[in-house]
Amino acid sequence: MVLDAVARGYPGSGGSYYGKGKLFLSPSRITFVVDSRNVTFDSFEMPLAQLNSARLKKKFFGSSTIRGSMNPTVDGNLIGKGKYKFTFKDGSAEEFYLGLREALLHLSETGFRATVSN
């Protein structure tokens, strides 16, 4: 699954990173790749097993978002618990969220547990 999104608020080494680009969902991770290179970052990955929560916020007017929190990964750049927010301009937030819920459900069958809510 590939969707256009704007990533906001992924804290790494004590800061937040923002970018406009493509969001990829696989059975094991979310990958965000910025449209154009910028000096801060060009991509990041979020292993689904590290997600603590995911919440869809649909808006009647404006862009819908998916936000939540995650634990740091071993050898990753995240210091402590992190927060993420993806903003979808084209109305595809619900489609991405349903795919994310399905992937998390599959992971839960192996003992992993995350909180997902609307």
Can you walk through the features of this model?
There is one protein chain. The chain has 118 residues and is mainly beta. It is 14% helix and 47% strand. The protein is built from one helix and eight strands; from the N terminus they run βββββββαβ. The chain has one helix at residues 93-108; strands at 2-11, 16-25, 29-34, 43-47, 51-57, 64-70, 82-88, 115-117. Strands 4-3-2-1-7-6-5-8 form an eight-stranded mixed beta sheet, with helices on one face. The longest helix is centred in the C-terminal third of the chain and has 16 residues, at 93-108. The chain is globular, with a radius of gyration of 13 Å.
C-alpha Rg, in Å? 13 Å
- In whole angstroms, the N-to-C terminal distance is 20 Å
Identify the strand order in the major beta sheet: 4-3-2-1-7-6-5-8
What is the structural class?
A: mainly beta
Reported for the largest beta sheet, the result is: 8 strands, mixed
How much strand?
over 45%
Number of DSSP strand runs:
8
Helix content: 10-25%
Low-confidence stretches: 1-5
Report the principal-axis shape: globular
Q: What string, H for helix and E for strand, traces the elements in order?
A: EEEEEEEHE
